[in-house]
Write a structure and sequence with these properties.
By secondary structure, the chain is mainly β. The protein is 6% helix and 44% strand. Strands 1-19-20-21-22 form a 5-stranded mixed sheet, with helices on one face. Strands 2-25-24-23 form a 4-stranded antiparallel sheet, covered by helices on one side. It holds the Pfam family Mala_s_1-like.
């Protein structure tokens, strides 16, 4: 989200996925649909559709990439269409489960000054279209942390969700037990903490806005999260206005894309994929900043990598035919594959 953020996570081995998918035809594209306002997106290889969270409507759009149109939405009764809620992080867990974050929007709109309300992790069965679980991820910390958004998964089926204000990681087990896995302990909720999280097996990486933007590694095998701040060559930082992070499958866990809302997509590398240290290779600029488009995440679509843009400054008052969203109807997606490849080579 604006000033915060997430992630695309790969629930199977990165190398296996990279080897299995065919080459895609690249290029920028637009999706024409009112209400879309995509916050995070993930490509479904099995069904060849794109899922995007509709930020203000608290729904998940299902996009046909042959026509670049929304063919249906995944709704959450009582949450979708409720002005108190936003949709942010989404993640495929295996081929048939979609995990979504529906959270109280006030946390982001007030940058942590108001973190009240209940936040939910939703699990949808993509085969049946049915909601399989609705998990309260707020009660476990008695509401001390707000702004949940992006997810990662480990090899045992556990789900990890980052909270941005002031920074926490909540673990949800396969039996839906909610565990406060890592808490920053900070009592000032206006401090921006974790914004995105990704996994490669049981290795977790999270972006943290503290100290100028740091990269933090965790081991999912630990009973509680033990943070290790990854040193970046030349004392580089992740930057300001952090949002989502992703590990493109084509690089097999060695390249991390870090999105900042205004700056664009920065490219970091760990040559052995262990992330004991990292180097910054460069940045793919945000080409829509002058049009008030903010970068939120990069996602894989087969062998291509795309940037998502959100339009936080669009007027949404008064409510109109676009529901709780603004009146924008065309949403661009930028193919950054070649630019990233050039930096990695």
């Amino acid at each position: 989200m604006f000033g915060a953020a997430v992630t695309i996570l790969l629930s199977a081995g990165l190398g296996a996925i990279a080897a299995a998918v065919p080459a895609a035809v690249g290029g920028d594209f637009n999706v024409t649909s009112p209400q879309l306002y995509p916050e995070k997106c993930v490509f479904d290889q099995k069904r060849t559709v794109l899922y995007c969270s509709e930020l203000y409507e608290s729904k998940i759009a299902v996009i046909d990439l042959k026509t670049n149109t929304v063919v249906k939405t995944i709704d959450f009764p009582g949450l979708s269409g409720n002005a108190d809620y936003h949709a942010s992080g989404i993640l495929l867990q295996g081929p048939d489960r979609l995990i979504s974050s529906i959270n109280t929007g006030a946390a982001f709109e007030t940058t942590g000054r108001n973190i009240s309300g209940t936040n939910f992790l939703l699990i949808t069965d993509l085969e049946t279209g049915q909601e399989k679980a609705r998990v309260d991820v707020t009660a476990v910390t008695k509401g001390a942390y707000g702004g949940p958004q992006d997810f990662a998964v480990d090899t045992c089926g556990n789900i990890y969700e980052v909270f941005t204000y002031p920074g926490a990681i909540i673990k949800v087990t396969p039996s839906l037990k909610v565990i406060p896995w890592h808490l920053s302990g900070d009592t000032n909720a206006t401090k921006t903490g974790f914004t995105g999280i990704v996994s490669n097996g049981n290795l977790l990486l999270a972006s943290n806005q503290q100290k100028g933007g740091t990269l933090v590694r965790f081991n999912a095998g630990d009973a509680t999260g033990q943070p290790f701040e990854v040193p970046i060559a030349n004392n580089e930082k992740l930057g300001d206005g952090l949002d989502g992070i992703s590990l493109p499958a084509k690089y097999q866990g060695t390249v991390l894309l870090v999105t900042t809302s205004q700056g664009g997509t920065s490219v970091f590398r760990s040559k052995d994929g262990k992330w004991n240290s990292a180097e910054k290779l460069g940045t793919v600029p945000n080409p829509l900043l002058d049009k008030q488009g903010f970068s939120t995440i990069a996602f894989d679509r087969e062998d291509r990598i795309y940037s998502v843009f959100e339009w936080f400054l669009d007027s949404r008052q008064p409510p109109n035919l676009n529901g709780l969203s603004g009146n924008r109807t065309v949403f661009p997606f930028q193919d950054i594959t070649d630019a990233v490849d050039k930096l990695v080579q």
